[in-house]
Amino acid sequence: MPHTALITGANRGLGLAVAAELADRGLDVVLTARDFDAAAKAAAEIGTAARPCELDVTDPASVARAAAELTEVDVLVCNAGVLLDGGHEPLTVPLELVERTLSVNLLGGWRTAQAFVPAMVRRGWGRVVFLSSATGSFELGLWLGAPAYSLSKTAVNGLTTMLARQTEGTGVLVNAVNPGQVRTRMVPNAPRGPEEAAVDIADVATLPDNGPTGAFLRSGQRIPW
Known about the structure:
Family: Belongs to the short-chain dehydrogenases/reductases (SDR) family.
Keywords: Oxidoreductase
CATH topology: Rossmann fold
Helix content: 40-55%
Distance between the termini: 36 Å
Order of helices and strands: EHEHEHEHEHEHEE
Shape: globular
CATH superfamily: NAD(P)-binding Rossmann-like Domain
GO molecular function: oxidoreductase activity
Protein name: Short-chain dehydrogenase
Organism: Amycolatopsis rifamycinica
């Protein structure tokens, strides 16, 4: 049977492109969104390999309902994210924006992983992909122009390494992907199209059993944390 992949924030943009790419590779895909109708419309664009599910990564009850319904998820792509604080600086950014950003970008992915990864460990196989960014890399330099977003991705990178260590040797691989600047509603003038970036993400979501875990990857290559 084909593996089943769940993608958060998949009703448009990069998430939808990832779902389409994974469906093209023969996986069954579950497109999730906060609004079921939006998820259903996106799933219909892909076809019979896709199905919708309502899932709000900031709502524990929503995540729990999805996990109870979807017991066969083998691949988790934590794509849902927000950029709310562009143009702010660390000393002046409203902390309410920081809290909202961390709620989605960090805690949302963490909550979803807690809901779905233990079953992967029990079955002895799984792939987890966190969508990260170069703006969260200490080596490359955190971005002062959106400090909440940048720091949220640094935290996602840390979470990736911790979950990779916890699941090491279980058959579950956990990695973070930097897709680069992708042309979506978040960054409408970015040079890279979502379909191109989706290939990189799908490659990590379908790694072979001897693939890396606990890595920060860009176009299949390790990059510095």
